[in-house]
Amino acid sequence: MNSRRPCIGGNWKMNTRLEDALLLARSVAEGVDTIDDCVDVVVYPPFPWITHVADVLSGSRVALGAQDVSSHGDGAYTGQISAGMLLDSGCTKVLVGHSERRHGLGESNSLLNEKALAALESGLEVMLCIGETLEERDSGRTNEVVATQVAECLSGVEAGSMARMTIAYEPVWAIGTGRTAEPGDAQEVHAGIRTQLADLYDAPIAAGMRILYGGSMKPGNAGELLEQADIDGGLIGGASLDSDEFLSIINATMTQGSAD
To answer: Between β-strands 125-130 and 165-169, what pairing exists: parallel, antiparallel or unpaired?
Structure first.
């Protein structure tokens, strides 16, 4: 790792009942508050629990995010949730482009670009998720696919907004499968993203951008992934539903950071 402040995000997806969510949030907040303040931690609960979790996290060092946002402002968009609503609910961050929305719901780079722009305009911080499928990986198109996603999803995002943007590389073939990209392979993709950001914007923006790994990071492999030069943390799925596992990953981040 490096001088960029690491970040660990917990995406709870469509999991937990309210009681479980409150217990999980409380356990994470209490655990994070006992460690050194050298890593950013954010959790992304399901929409119905956001205001409840916001109350639990109030005054803690754990930030609150949403798993998705509408590309529209308020209006006649049944079932959607605007950036303004998320802010009023206590969120400061939002995921855009998670693979389960790209591939499960058919969300395009164009739509995700609109969502990112709407979120940034409202004042939310965006974690943009990108990554290739197994078919794209096996056909040698990883770099091409990732570069296209980065370019199209960041279209129109001004340099001044990039400080509120984080990128999460999530190889789709590694999500929920127990498979993980080899650390060197993940590092190569992360480095390519950083090079592309320097071309799209400038070297300082690229150097300051946090790029997280989001493909089945667990306590057992977190250290090896986090020691890579361009991996600045992780977007955690299943392991974030267990506070002990999630806190172990956070501690691995701290350990790696202190070793650099």
So the answer is: parallel
Is the domain defined by 7-248 classed in CATH 3.20.20.70?
yes
CA distance 83 to 122: 6
Q: Is the pLDDT of residue 1 over 50?
A: no
Q: How many residues does the chain have?
A: 260
By CB atoms closer than 10 A (0-12, 13-18, 19+), residue 182 is exposed
- Predicted confidence band of residue 156 (pLDDT cuts 50, 70, 90): very high
Q: Where are the domains of the chain?
A: 7-248
Closest of 114, 22, 28, 24 to residue 68, by C-alpha: 114
List pLDDT tens digits, range 40-58.
999 999 999 999 999 999 9
CA gap 97, 214 in Å, rounded: 12
| Element containing residue 208 per DSSP (H, E) | helix 203-208
Whole-model pTM: value is: 0.95
- Residues known to be catalytic: 98, 170
- DSSP-based three-state secondary structure for 95: strand
